[in-house]
Structure formats: C-alpha cells, structure tokens
Task: structure prediction
Amino acid sequence: MTTHRTPGPTRTAHRLFRAAASGVAGLALIAVAGCGSPAAPQSPAEPGGQASPAPAAGQSSTTEPTTAPTTASPSTPQTSTPEPTKEPEPTKEPEPRKEPAMMKSGAKGEQVRELQVRLRSISWLSGTITGTYDEATVEAVRGFQAKRGVAATGEVDQKTWALLVGMTQTPTHEQKHNILTPGPALMKAGQESDKIKELQARLAQIGWFSDEVTGFYGPVTTASVKGFQEKRQIPVTGEVDQRTWDRLAAMTRQPTKVELGEAPPPAEEGSNGGGYDLDPRCMTGRVICISKSTNTLHWMKDGKVIKAMDARFGAKGMETREGVFQVGWKSRNHTSTIYHTWMPFALFFSGGQAVHYSPDFAANGYNGGGSHGCVNIRDRAGVEWLFDQVRVGDRVVVHW
Result:
C-alpha cells in the first residue's frame, strides 16, 4: 500500500518561496526593457477576438506595455549657415571745401579792373584794361595760379588775391582806366650820372641797349627808353618816370661791375675773378658759383670765370638753399614730377633743387616772381653749353 505523505510545513514554505522568486525575476526583466533596450513583443490577440492565454502558474500577471518604448536618439545640433559678413564701406574723405570766388568769369567792375592791372604788371595779361572778367582774364588767372601752386580754377579766391596783391603795387585810377599820363622825369636827355649807367646796363640785359655804357643820356638811350615804353604800354616820352623805372627794375637785376663798364670783361679763360664779387669758396677747382646778391651764375675753373649768366632764385617760402653742394645728377630734358613744369638742362645739386633753363624767366625776367627753389637761367644757349661742361661731382656754391 502506497503511503501518501502530506507536504510538511517546511516543504510547503519552500515551494512558496521559489514561486515568489520566479515572479520577482519576471518583474525585473520587464523593468530592464524600459531603459532604452528593445521591448519584448506583445502576444497578439487570438483570432475571434479572444485574448491570449493567461500566464502559467508562477508567472507574473503584470500587463506589458502596448507600445514599445521609444529609444531616444541623441539630438543632433542644427547648424545654420551664417550670413556672410558685409565688408564695411570705406569712409569717404570729405572733399576740401572750395573757397568762394571773389571774382569769376562774367564779373564786371572796378575790382576786375584792379585785377587786370595787377596781372598785366607781372606780364600775365596784355592789352587794354576792360573791367570785364573775360576769357583772357580767366586764362591769365589760371596761369598765375598754376605757377604758384594754387588750384588753377581761373577764379579769384581769397588765397589767389592775397598772393597777387603781395606781388604787385596798388593800381592808380589812370592805370585802371587806361589813362596814360607820364609822371615827372627821373632821368632824361642831356643828363649824365651813375644812375644812367645803371639804366643803360639794365636796358642792355633785356636787349634794348647795345651801345657802350657811358652814363650819358644821349639819342641812343632816348630811343631805347621809347622802345621799352611802347612795348609795355607806358606813355612813350623817351624819359624815365617812376612807372618806367619800376617796370624796368622788375624785369632786370642789379648790374655787375663788368656790365657797368667799371671792370674789364673776363676772357674766355679770364683773369682771376674779372670784375665780379666772388665768394672765396669759388676760387679753386671746377665750381658753379651762384651769387644771390648779384643774381648771377659763374662757371669757374681754378678761380677763373669762364662764363657768366643771369640767375633767378626761389620765391618767398621756397628759397634756394645756400651752401656748398655737389652736382648729384643731370637731366637734359627734365620735367618736374611735383610741379609738372619743364626744366631742361637740369643740374641737380641739393635734393630737388637744380640749375636749369626757365622759359618763364626768359619771357618775364625778374617780374615773373621766382622759382620753386631752383636756380633759373634765361640764357638757353648758355645753360645748354654749361650742361655739357659740368660733370657729376663738380661743386656748387650758393652765396650772398
């Protein structure tokens, strides 16, 4: 006979413990699947709408989620294409303010007459004073401005007017209205003096006197003065009044002793110094000796004057430098890169300063004002000859 043993309390408790442990494990599996891992698939409903069988004994009856958990993917930051940075527009330099015109084309009146007289006195205008700012006046003003480094507008602003007034004398009523009345005679026929020597020498410098300088005011001197007066629209009297003398003095320089007939002219290889007042630094070697006091250039060798020429120097504010220099370089057909003016046969001795031929000096004499610092020569043939004689390295002495 088979004996059936009833499970004891101990055995029964042990079974209950294993069942409970199995349920805990099932719950743990469900919990792990919710932390980003793929979830177990849900059992589909049976055909006919019946649910799937209940879990077996010992399994948890916890309902599984109907939707699989979504696995979160790391968010990818969106990168937007930045708009190109616009280059800042360059700041426009403010245009220099143009000075208002005191006088310009079409103007009429007394001030225009004064302007025309002043321009005519320095050879920028010729003809009758009209009082009308015509094309000839525009061109005269433009030329004057360009020569002096002012904007060449052809209109008279305050700067142009100040420069012109500083270079010229205040016109008289007669000058502004074309009334040619001769003044009292300073020198006239029949007189004799050292001043007349100077008159003759100055006339000779500009080709109006070719006779011997004697100091006597005879027929030759009278004819020379008349020709000079007629050319410059001065009352033609043959006598020297203040107007005639001022105009002549403005176009010429102080005569040398040789020109006054007080010293013999130097020979081609002349005696030491001739009749010239020379700086001691010029007395040895090959030297271009330039005197500001006599407005003269001398080409010298070992103290002997070979050739002398009239010279003109820098205007106020652009003075020719004094001292001892050397010819640094030569340029036969040079044009200034600063002032855009022609300066042929240039012998450069101090930076941009040079000895060279000046068409303005040849046309207007000392009445033209002055250079931008160079030594102007009006004898074209003479300075061309000098250019061929001088070597780079020859000394240049500029003195008073």
User: Anything to note?
Assistant: Strands lie at 286-291, 296-301, 304-312, 323-326, 329-335, 342-350, 353-357, 375-377, 395-399.
